[in-house]
Design a protein that fits this description.
- InterPro entries: Metallo-depent_PP-like (IPR029052), Quinoprotein_ADH-like_sf (IPR011047), WD40/YVTN_repeat-like_dom_sf (IPR015943).
- A six-stranded mixed β-sheet has the order 1-2-3-4-6-5, covered by helices on one side. It has a five-stranded mixed β-sheet with strand order 12-19-18-14-15, with no helix packed on it.
- About 5% of the residues lie in helices and about 40% in strands.
- The protein folds into three domains: about 150 residues, Metallo-dependent phosphatases (Purple Acid Phosphatase, chain A, domain 2, 4-Layer Sandwich), CATH 3.60.21.10; about 110 residues, Immunoglobulin-like (Sandwich), CATH 2.60.40.10; about 130 residues, Beta Barrel (Thrombin, subunit H).
- With about 400 residues, it is mainly beta.
Amino acid sequence: FNALAATHEMPFYAIAGNHDPEFTTYVGPDMFSFDAGEYHFVAFYRAGDEVNAWLARDIAANADKKLIVLNHWCAGTNPRSPYSPIKKSGLLPAKPLAWLSGNDHINYAYPFLGTLDIRTSSFNQGRRRDATPKGYRIITLDEKGVRDTTYYPTGIPATAGVSWPADGAVVSPGKLSVRACGISSGSFALGARCRIVPAGGEPPGEWVNMTASGAFRFHADVEVAESGPHRVALAVDFGLPGAERPVRTVTSRAEFSVGRPAALTPDGKPAFPLRLAWSSPVGGMVYGCRPTVIDGKVLIGSRRDDRSDFAGVTALELAGGKRLWRAPVGDVKYDVLAHGQTAYFISSRNKLHAVDLAGGKEKGSVSGLSGWTCYLGRSETALGMVSRQSWAAVGAPTDVHSARVKA
């Protein structure tokens, strides 16, 4: 690796990641710094007493330069959390211009606590959490700071689509929650707008600015009063954050009808009208978890985000959505399983937890592989998804936009 890196005509710096246990043995130091013009770069793997002391000395000695951080982990996800790497490392007061990371495998560049948090996908693995393809990023710096963060992929052009209502859907009159996605490998979805167009020749509705839900999803509530066929028109603007005008605008649409929606039985016959029975907030973000229903309870796992510090499993009453108990064990990213009077789930620290189904009290937990293992012949697993397009996929049947379980 080092011999190949030495053949580059430009300076080459490797940063230790969470799959590099022997990085310092075969590659080099896992914390270092260097200068490039008026910029000072610091690189380290994980915050700690020794690392933080070194960072404080290094930054104090280079206080006259603009600071850029290179780290495997992102700057943070919850501004209120004391566990964000930018806080744990003591770097928040230094106000870095940018924090470059790769662990999340996504195409992302947005401010976090005053620092531009730039996360880049992997060069050898694409289509991960936000469907970003394989590729690399070129970041341009000038005397004012970060000027460009374009990601260069194997190739996904700016694309926009309506994820709800889907083509052919039947919705009830009244409020309609329009959901859309906009993704591009070389720019960012800066904003979106939609409007409802009746198919009978009536005047179209006004354009409605949509609210962003993360880096590439948008939603807006509109009113549909007339029955019959309609069309939702979508326009998504793509460009770079802070630009005066978008680079391009991509349009899309979906055809749907306003009427009385009905579910279908396996043989394709109408079954019963669909309606929202209840909606209950669970706190944090539901990511990759599907609800488990057992003994009149709905169990759902969630993780921390910028809306809530709660992370763990929540039990809701199946009949009305009332919260019965919470198990605050940390981020839960996978389905909750239940057997007898015990619920089982895995936290983000790869720890298996067992809690009492009646009250949520933890019965025990275990880390590592203390029993037997069996090779399943698969190198990857895929979560259950509901989507017409892979890049618009969301976990089913939870609502990742509002962190609410819907029944």
